[in-house]
TrEMBL record:
Name of the featured protein: PaaI family thioesterase
Organism from which the protein derives: Spectribacter acetivorans
Pfam families in the cross-refs: 4HBT
Residue ranges of domain Thioesterase in the record: 64-133
MF-aspect GO terms: hydrolase activity
InterPro entries, per the entry: HotDog_dom_sf, PAAI_dom, Thioestr_dom
Keyword Hydrolase: yes
């Protein structure tokens, strides 16, 4: 698939495809990038017993949905911008609409809605595989280009003046 630049081998797409193997948290949870297209990313997370809310639960723990949405949304920022610059999650608001069944994989579909020089805005739906209605939906905001001038606390470095 082509990335933001139209090139099938651009850096953001390559990073997204290797995401599950390179980031320990995503690897441990079993996240896998399924598709990267322009400003969108789809990720899949196969159900595993240890992801359940508790031993007797028939639903996946909501914190797992949060991790999946955050990962997919962050990758959507890279896909939309076409460049690999440091980002940081500023805010991720999730609405849980229904339990995530423990016998179905989770699919996250994230789309970057708007980019500025400093901030990215992303929408993400999390679905149970084979279902049309999401189990959760979220909005994320990311700070872009976080590697820059160091912010100084008031009074720091000014000799007390």
């Amino acid at each position: 698939m082509a990335g933001a630049s139209g090139s099938p081998d651009n850096a953001p797409v390559a990073v997204a495809r290797q995401f599950g193997e390179q980031v320990p948290h995503s690897r441990d949870l079993g996240m896998r990038v399924v598709a990267v297209e322009a400003d969108q990313v789809r990720m899949r997370l196969a159900p595993q017993l240890w992801l359940l809310a508790d031993d007797d639960a028939e639903e996946i723990c909501t914190s797992v949905l949060y991790s999946l949405a955050d990962s997919a949304a962050g990758l959507a920022v890279f896909a939309a911008s076409g460049e690999l610059t440091p980002i940081a999650t500023l805010d991720l608001r999730m609405d849980y609409l229904r339990p995530a069944a423990s016998d179905r994989a989770l699919l996250a579909q994230a789309r970057c809605l708007h980019l500025t020089d400093d901030v990215a805005f992303v929408h993400c739906d999390v679905l149970s595989e084979g279902q049309e209605q999401p189990v959760a939906t979220g909005k994320a905001t990311f700070m872009r280009n976080t590697r820059g001038k160091r912010f100084q606390a008031a009074g720091e470095g000014d000799n007390g003046a």
